[in-house]
UniProtKB/TrEMBL annotation:
Keyword Transmembrane helix carried by entry: yes
Name this protein carries in UniProt: MFS transporter
GO CC list: membrane
Membrane topology value: Multi-pass membrane protein
Keywords annotated in UniProt: Membrane, Transmembrane, Transmembrane helix
Organism: Streptomyces ficellus
Amino acid sequence: MGPDAARRRFATVTFLFWLPVGLYIPAQVLLLTERGMALPVVAGLFAVHSVTVSVMELPTGGLADVVGRRAVLAAAGVLNLCALTAMALGTTVWALAVAMVLMGAGRALSSGPAEAWYVDTVQAHSGAGADLRTGLARGNTASAAALAAGTLLGGGLPLLLDLAPDAGARMAEATGGLVLPLSAPALLGAVVNAAYVTYVLCSLPEPPRPPATLRQVLRGVPATTAAGLRLGAHEPLVRRVLLSAAAVGAALATVELLTPGRAARLTGTPESGAVVYAVLACLGFLCTALGSHSAPLAARLTGSSEHAALASLAVSTAGLLLLGVTAAWGGPAPAVVAAVGYGLVYFGLGAAGPNENDLLHRRVDSTVRATALSVQSLALQSAGAVTGLVAGSLPAGPLPWLVGSVALLAGTLLWTRRAAGPAAGEEQQPYARKALPRAP
């Protein structure tokens, strides 16, 4: 398969994966609070999700490197379908915790295989020096576009159902209180996940692999996981990418936990708050798409992927600081400044991601590519879980926002020093090719 076809299929599968996430993001926190969950309980449920991802990231990344990308992606779609159904219908903490575990498992399974499939396919066609940044940027743009479209639909759907004469009440009465207007986005997301599984199975061809027995898988996954961990521990530039991912996870956890409640307080009701948050989230994801699209340009203007990552993360840090400062005041002017800060956070992260991953993929070979991406996701999720618990326990105001701002600033400062090697080593052969053993 040529690079153009690989880019299109990578962008499509990325869009289909993230569209359900966009659908449930605006209503998720509000649905949980409508079920009677306090904010610390909501933060705890998010932590269940993040811990599940953290525990499963490395084994599932190794699994994708051993048994193949397509089967692991399809399994992720099935788990996400079950998770969204449970999230929409769950009424108790235990049921919602199960939904978070399923969602975390699906996230862990999906956090590297699609990108690994794309890089493997392009390099198999065009060699190790093939352009990766353009396709990675298009994948990030597709995910941001899916999130933007999903948040608009997911934020507006509950309000439309609530405005229809007695529609919400009839829905709740017919289902014994299981389905509320705020449940509809998650149920729609489950349907989209079914389409995602079908597309993955039909459209992502892989080279034939030798049949893997259970014994081979049990031996191969730990070996591949250990290789990925050694890479993160011993290769300075990869370590910098991983620490930056942790900083981004802290920032995103802060924004995603605190913004819905801030929007609901601004408007006075959960349903209208979901709409406001959907608009904000859509703005953020559109800024992410714009930032991702401009990632190759940022690298050209700054001279390297490393300098582009530094500049992009600095923009995000400035935006998060604006969000924190404006939390102390009410009124239209601080709200406008906060919206600008929100957009800057996501624009900067969108521009940073493809440049950081371009550096990462030039340091690894196909035997540990999905594992390396899983280590990156593990850093993001683990930092997000800890930061969410800390921010959720602090009093309202600027202080919770400061937690994420400090973490993102630390991640930005990592890029003020260049890695050892010629010009960030962007044209070097993969560092791991000879040093990392192939899985049995």
